[in-house]
Design goal:
The protein has helices at about 5-10, 20-45, 65-70; strands at about 75-80, 80. Helices cover about 40% and strands about 5% of the residues. A two-stranded antiparallel sheet has the order 1-2. The protein has a domain at about 5-45. β1 and β2 form a beta hairpin.
């Protein structure tokens, strides 16, 4: 299998140092090989799933923590909700 590392790095806009090229090509080949193995396993009809989704419990609504008790521990509250510091300023940059 051929890995065109130059094309991959150009499309992903990543810079790869010359001394890293062989290791990255090896890692990419390994990833593609595993993906091929998964595809072949999926195509094998004898393969049984490891987990049965039927064994999961159904979701049921249940009582949760009291809102007033929960908000009592919050450092800041506004209109019955947690008040948190913004992570972006109004200009769209990082805060």
């Amino acid at each position: 299998m051929q890995i065109n590392l130059e094309k991959i790095t150009a499309l992903s806009m990543l810079t790869v140092l010359p001394e890293e090229k062989d290791a990255i090509k090896y890692a990419l080949k390994s990833i593609v090989k595993k993906a091929d193995q998964l595809q072949k396993a999926k195509e094998n009809e004898k393969l049984k799933p490891c987990v049965s989704l039927e064994a999961l419990r159904p979701d049921k609504p249940a009582a949760s923590i009291d809102r007033k008790a929960m908000l009592a521990n919050a450092p800041a509250v506004k209109d019955g909700c947690f008040l948190v510091s913004p992570i972006w300023d109004t200009e769209g940059g990082s805060a």
